[in-house]
Amino acid sequence: MNEIVQKMGTSFHILEMSLEQEEYLTEMVHGALKKHSQDDINFLEVTQLLDQALTSVDQLKQLNTENNNCETADIFDDEDELF
Prior knowledge:
Layout: H1 2-15, H2 19-75
Helix pairs in contact: 1-2
C-alpha cells in the first residue's frame, strides 16, 4: 500500500497536476487502499473466530459423546445379564 502511494507521489510531475490535485488524488488512493486493507483484516479476524467456534463445537460434541458412553457403561453391571 505504501509503495503504491509513494510511486504515485513521485510520478505526479508526469501528469502535470497542481499540488491541490496531487494531494486530493493521493488522499483518495490512500483512503481506498486503507479501507480495503482494513476489510481484509476484518475478514481474517472473522474467519479466525469462526474457526475457533467450530473447534469448540467439535470439542463439545466429543465431550458429549464421551459422557454418554460413560453413563451407558455405568448403567449395566456384570450382574445385569440378559439370558
